[in-house]
Design brief:
The chain is an alpha/beta fold. It has helices spanning 16-21, 43-56, 76-86, 99-108, 125-129, 131-136, 152-159, 171-183, 199-212, 225-232, 236-249, 269-289, and strands spanning 7-12, 29-33, 63-67, 90-93, 117-122, 145-150, 187-190, 216-219, 259-262, 265-268. Helix 2 packs parallel to helix 3 (76-86) and helix 9 (199-212) runs parallel beside helix 10 (225-232). It starts with 6 loop residues before the first strand and ends with a helix.
Length: 290
């Protein structure tokens, strides 16, 4: 099943009002956070509040993820224990660097509902270098890997690459990670944009992420949801063109053809496959709204 992931908003687990508000926002998904947005002395309270929030449901068609603390922290075992029992749609794990990290997560989830998926945050130099190995681990169903979330801020901190508008220095790493996910049939989300008040800069980065091949973007402020959704939604003209391509290939005279002429240009079967993806996303977005 195709699921829209245009916008996934981080919400601090320690903020009860934010958890309640998450049920009303137009984001495709909500990430209930136990890591960066939660102070060390608030981890236990946040864990309890997230467990109650997920149990209470009410998130509608939004995808619900829980971000646990990193595997080198003293909190992650309790976090993942709670998350496994709470049964969100997925668990987001920060600073995954090796396949052994993924196996450690899988071991802790043994016995948890099989529908719970794992998302790996790519935030270290090692993770970028070994992105293909990490993505390939998804062949093992026990790993539960659904995709990556690219984490530019932590990568910048570790590599000393400066974060500048346009992210030119990071594009090779981004492309490398996107190729790894596509090679193994996974999804990948862009990291958040930190300058909340710079709406133009945010929109530019969203458009860049879309064009680079990200499936959507993680967000840290509700004010970014509408712009993000709009940018990652296939335009109506693009969807109409996709439907026209599919209809043309479904004509009996084109059933065995690898390429056809449509509106004065050559269209190949690969364009039909791309069109199917566009239509699937558009239909999934429409279903979210209904």
């Amino acid at each position: 099943m195709t699921r829209p992931r245009r916008s996934l908003l981080f919400m601090p687990g320690s903020n009860a009002r934010a958890l309640e508000k998450a049920r009303t926002l137009a984001a495709d998904g909500i990430i209930l956070d136990l890591e960066d947005s939660v102070a060390p002395d608030a981890k236990a309270v946040a864990r309890e509040q997230i467990a109650k929030a997920v149990a209470a449901k009410g998130f509608g068609k939004r995808e619900v993820l829980i971000r646990i603390n990193a595997l080198d922290s003293p909190w992650w075992v309790d976090d993942i224990g709670m998350a496994g029992k709470a049964q969100p749609d997925g668990i987001l794990v920060p600073k995954i660097s090796t396949v052994e990290d993924l196996k450690a997560v899988a071991d802790r989830l043994r016995g948890a509902d099989v529908s719970i998926r794992v998302w790996a945050m790519i935030e270290t130099a090692r993770a970028v270098l070994d992105a293909d190995k990490l993505a390939a681990a998804s062949k093992d169903s026990e790993i539960r890997l659904a995709g990556f979330v690219f984490g530019p801020n932590d990568i910048a901190r570790e590599t000393r690459i400066r974060m500048k508008p346009g992210r030119a220095a990071m594009i090779p790493m981004i492309t490398h990670c996107i190729l790894a996910t596509r090679a193994h049939g996974l999804e990948i989300l862009d990291g958040p944009y930190g300058d909340i008040s710079n709406i133009d800069g945010f929109a530019e980065e969203c458009a860049q992420g879309r064009d680079l091949g990200f499936d959507g973007k993680t967000l840290i402020h509700p004010s970014h949801i509408d712009a993000c959704n709009a940018i990652f939604t296939p335009p109506e003209a693009e969807v109409a063109e996709a439907r026209k391509i599919i209809a043309a290939f479904e004509q009996p005279e084109n059933a065995a053809r690898g390429a056809i002429q449509l509106d004065g240009r050559m269209v190949e079967r690969l364009h039909a496959e791309m069109a199917k993806r566009t239509i699937a996303i558009a239909d999934a977005i429409a279903a979210m709204r209904s």
